[in-house]
Amino acid sequence: MMWAYQCLDFFGTITDMICLYVISRLLLKEYRFSSVFCKYIPPIAIFIFTWVLTWFSEFAAFKIPALFVITITVLKICYKDTIYQSIVAVELWFAQDAICSEAIGFIISKYLLGDNLQILLDGQHILRWEVYVIHMLTRIVVLSFVYIILKNFKYIVKVNDCIILSAVYIIGFTIMMFNNYNLMNLAKTPNLIMFVSSSGLSVVFFSVFLYSKSKLYFQEQEKKDKIQIAQLQQQFAYYQEKLKDEEKVRSVYHDMKNHLLVLQRQINSPETAEVIDKLQSQVAMYEDYEHTGNDILDIILKEKSEKAREKHIALSVTADLSDVDFIEPLDISTIFGNGLDNAIEASEKLPEEQRGILVKAGKIQNFFSILIENNCLQSSNNTKKRTTKSDDFLHGFGISNMRKAAEKYGGQLLTKCENEKFILKILIPIP
Questions:
Q1: How far, in Å, CA of 72 to CA of 95, rounded?
Q2: Does domain 293-431 bear CATH number 3.30.565.10?
Q3: Nearest alpha carbon to residue 297 among 260, 337, 339, 265
Q4: Backbone dihedral angles phi then psi of residue 332, each to the nearest 5 degrees
Q5: Where are the domains of the chain?
Q6: Which candidate, 14, 5, 83, 80, places its Cα nearest to that of 46?
Q7: Per-residue pLDDT, 390
């Protein structure tokens, strides 16, 4: 019969690992390596460590602290999230698995089986198999509660949050360990109430606390989204007004060009001819801008070209949007306006001889491709810091807004920095 209990113990450990997998997936988001590796290695590694630690029964008091530290270390290796996020994830795992589930499982066992919770097998007092099963089922139920509460968790745990939750965890864990040495004497109502309430409330507090933080995070994100939308709409309105003004100016320049041709034929004075030639060159300079097939993009490129010229930045543009009419003007403004602003901002930090921006846009097979490339100070893949401006709340949305615009059409945005060049690519499937 002992083999059957060993199997139950094995499956109990499996449920522990399932709990660790789910909780780590809820609270930790940023993989350090491949997603498959980071998802499955922690529970597998902890499963192995758990069985290794069982061999050192003479050091039973150190098993849980050792497993706690090992689990945090493994999660930190696999995920880029903060150490506080990893600590809270492990604390929540221990709280729902070892504290809450243990307490609830014991109460259910006492209710169903009475005081007869142990049997004598091979000279040893061990828990009945029904207790093992009840504990495993309780773990799954408590885990389901945690999952429902935190399934949309996005909040980044801060040091103050970690301190508060760690204090709650330590209190709950201490009470559990105090009573765990004498489980069979918990039948006394006061002890039972203290055990269950402290254990259950620790998980409830964890879940509600993290849920409230996550909800606050979503509210802040919603506020930021509204600001972003307002900024984009304001930017687009600006380009629309520029387009109207541009059309008027184009008409005036067109008439001026014709008038200058007439004057050139009628007046033979060298001085007058010189003035006319100068005016014609100025008109030609004005007309020397990109014609992409998209009026909004033409305005954006003209404005950014002038800005680049002022800052002594070489800007090369090759763009053809003549057959790309499914992208809304607002999204054109978002992608190219923000992309060029970021490139110009980065180029300003370089010596003049190194300042250069390359823009390419057009159809490639069944995709609309956009490339914005600029020289940068160093090779780095860290693109999180997208702005050096002091008002980070309002700035730094550029790439995120561009990504949203691309994803709106089923496309994707990729960035990389290598060989002292920052490269931004957008691929959008053509419907």
A1: 14
A2: yes
A3: 337
A4: -60, -45
A5: 2-215, 293-431
A6: 14
A7: 37
Residue that has been written with the tokens 């970021």 in this structure: 342
**CA 245 vs CA 234, 238, 251, 309: distances in Å:** 17, 11, 10, 21
Angle between helices 63-78 and 35-54 (to 10 degrees): 170
Q: Which long-range contacts (CB under 8 A, 24 or more apart) does 406-413 make?
A: 406/335, 408/331, 409/326, 409/327, 409/331, 411/367, 411/368
pTM: 0.63
pLDDT band at 76 (very low <50, low <70, confident <90, very high): very high
Q: Is 31 helix (H, G, I), strand (E, B) or coil?
A: strand
Q: Which helix (H) or strand (E) holds 164?
A: helix 159-180
The Cα-based distances of 306 to 314, 315, 340 in angstroms read 11, 10, 12
Summarize pLDDT for 373-424 with one digit per residue, the tens.
998 876 444 444 444 443 333 334 578 889 989 999 999 999 988 888 899 9
Instruction: Identify the H or E element spanning 125.
Output: strand 124-127
**Of all residues in the chain, what percent are helix, strand and coil, respectively (each to 5)?**
70, 10, 20
User: What contacts 380, CB < 8 A, 6 or more positions away?
Assistant: 417
pLDDT tens digit string along 177-216? 665 545 444 445 445 555 666 666 778 888 889 999 988 8
Locate 291 and state its tokens: 């014609």
